[in-house]
UniProtKB/TrEMBL annotation:
<dbReference type="GO" id="GO:0004029">
    <property type="term" value="F:aldehyde dehydrogenase (NAD+) activity"/>
</dbReference>
<dbReference type="GO" id="GO:0046872">
    <property type="term" value="F:metal ion binding"/>
</dbReference>
<dbReference type="InterPro" id="IPR015590">
    <property type="entry name" value="Aldehyde_DH_dom"/>
</dbReference>
<protein>
    <submittedName>
        <fullName>Aldehyde dehydrogenase (NAD+)</fullName>
        <ecNumber>1.2.1.3</ecNumber>
    </submittedName>
</protein>
<dbReference type="InterPro" id="IPR016163">
    <property type="entry name" value="Ald_DH_C"/>
</dbReference>
<feature type="domain" description="Aldehyde dehydrogenase">
    <location>
        <begin position="14"/>
        <end position="468"/>
    </location>
</feature>
<keyword id="KW-0630">Potassium</keyword>
<keyword id="KW-0521">NADP</keyword>
<keyword id="KW-0560">Oxidoreductase</keyword>
<keyword id="KW-0479">Metal-binding</keyword>
<comment type="similarity">
    <text>Belongs to the aldehyde dehydrogenase family.</text>
</comment>
<dbReference type="InterPro" id="IPR016161">
    <property type="entry name" value="Ald_DH/histidinol_DH"/>
</dbReference>
<dbReference type="Pfam" id="PF00171">
    <property type="entry name" value="Aldedh"/>
</dbReference>
<keyword id="KW-0558">Oxidation</keyword>
<dbReference type="InterPro" id="IPR016162">
    <property type="entry name" value="Ald_DH_N"/>
</dbReference>
């Protein structure tokens, strides 16, 4: 049983002022595996005070000093890779296909940001003015449960590169993962107060941080509904904000696509991270001329997406994070049938042979139109909607007919055609034919998927403000 009773403030693991405890579960077994003592508003204030005390000195460190810190952080995280893998598997239940990417990436984001920092020009001449990019102040990062340590490391890497200090409020549902990554970051030996980590409830600690007058910047990853609340609170003191919110990504299969290649990629995009991912391609757009063929291919290929215990390397879809999330996904599967969509695969209940654990049958609806709620609302579970279109023009219109605009996919045998279609999609990222991840490219969304960008130069500048000196 994991008993987590410390938070991290001013370079030390300390007892929180908060006295509330929350249970931790293994979602593959539904068994309680630990408890975490939650921070409160007073702890949030202590963490901000520590970051504020450190800011003046840290903001004036050199580029070389910060690059060295980023490299030390990479080494410290890489050294505990196996512990990070086990913590995510036990507490979150992610399949190996996701963990094998997520665990190395947590450390690599520090090297990616060091590379960005090496080439970045903090001073530039514009006419008669000298313009210097300065750290914006004390930053707050609020991170979700679906990729805990990747979000923590990604946001922290940009803050450190910019010379900003940070308070991190991770999800209380990821406390075991948070403990391991905090131990890693502590081992890197950064100055006290550069980063502080307070695990607590969003309505208590998150709200206290969002309203805090000494916080200048908030970076948040999570639901659009929570993002709206944070933006309203941040506006009271004109905090700078980066919002990476929900998504309802389209995967557009053009009529010239090679289905032997495309169908497995479309399903991999849709079921990414057990579909508990804002970037999952949960709307599959298929041309009417090939619709029946695509239906049949999907119905057969989905059988390769095994659901079960994430300890099994052949498993591709793990459990939902909680009973609440499982119930939510089941409600959408019922809703899809009530709306008139037809089940091509899956349905309600657990997969055959699994009597415990918050597992969902990988579900594909066909006969879906883009006005149905299952096609418009973020479900955050393995439920995909197959939507027909007549021609390329309609495919683009349907893809863009959404409140979201985070990530999209385009599949075609003609790369120039795929690129032309991609240029018309309103999304922060458009991936052509399953192209590999580019860690230095900006990431963020259009419309209600948020604003601001993370990673690379754009992520660095999210923590900087230009100061112009004339004369």
């Amino acid at each position: 049983m994991h008993i987590i009773e410390r938070i991290y403030i001013d370079g030390a693991f300390v007892e929180p002022h908060g006295t509330q405890w929350a249970p931790l579960f293994n979602p593959a077994t539904e068994e309680q595996i630990g408890t975490v003592r939650l921070a409160d508003a007073e702890d949030a204030d202590r963490a901000v005070a520590a970051a504020k005390r450190t800011f003046t000195a840290f903001s004036n460190t050199s580029r070389e000093e910060r690059i060295e810190m980023l490299r030390r952080l990479h080494a410290a995280v890489a050294d505990r890779a196996s512990d990070l893998v086990e913590a995510m598997r036990e507490e979150y239940g992610a399949p190996s296909s996701f963990i094998d990417f997520s665990a190395p990436r947590a450390g690599n984001v520090f090297l990616d940001m060091a590379k960005t920092l090496e080439a970045y020009e903090f001073r530039r001449r514009i006419g008669g003015a000298e313009v210097e990019m300065r750290p914006s102040g004390v930053a707050v990062a609020i991170t979700p449960w679906n990729s805990n340590y990747s979000f923590i490391c990604g946001k922290l890497s940009a803050a450190i590169a910019a010379g900003a200090t940070m308070v991190i409020k991770p999800s209380e549902m990821s406390a075991i993962q948070t403990r391991v990554i905090t131990e890693c970051l502590h081992a890197a030996g950064l100055p006290d107060g550069v980063f502080n980590i307070v695990t607590g409830d969003g309505a208590v600690v998150g709200a206290a941080l969002a309203a805090h007058r000494d916080v200048s910047k908030i970076t948040f990853t999570g639901s659009t509904a929570t993002g709206r609340t944070i933006v309203r609170m941040a506006a009271e003191t004109m905090k700078r904000v980066t919002m990476e919110l929900g998504g309802k990504g389209p995967s557009i299969i053009l009529d010239d696509a090679d289905l032997d290649v495309v169908i497995p990629q479309v399903l991999a995009a849709g079921f990414l991270n057990s579909s508990q991912a804002c970037i999952a391609g949960t709307r599959i757009l298929a041309p009417l001329a090939r619709f029946g063929e695509i239906e049949g291919r999907l119905q057969e290929a989905v059988k390769d997406f095994k659901v079960g215990d994430p300890k099994d390397k052949s498993v591709r879809i793990g459990p939902m994070v909680s009973q609440k999330q499982w119930d939510r996904v089941q409600s959408y599967i019922r809703l899809g049938q009530e709306e008139g969509a037809r089940l091509l695969a899956g349905g309600e209940g657990r997969p055959e042979g699994l009597s415990r654990g918050w597992f969902v049958r990988p579900t594909i609806f066909t006969g879906v139109n883009n006005g149905m709620r299952i096609a418009r609302e973020e479900i955050f579970g393995p439920v995909l909607s197959l939507i027909p279109y007549h021609d390329e023009e309609e495919a683009v219109a349907v893809a863009n007919d959404t409140d979201y605009g985070l990530q999209a996919q385009v599949f075609s045998s003609d790369v120039l055609r795929a690129r032309r279609v991609a240029g018309r999609i309103m999304a922060g990222r458009v991936i052509l034919n399953g192209a590999p991840h580019e860690p230095l490219a900006p990431f963020g969304g259009f419309k209600q998927s948020g604003f601001g960008r993370e990673f690379g130069v754009f992520g660095l500048e999210a923590f900087l403000e230009p100061r112009a000196i004339l004369g």
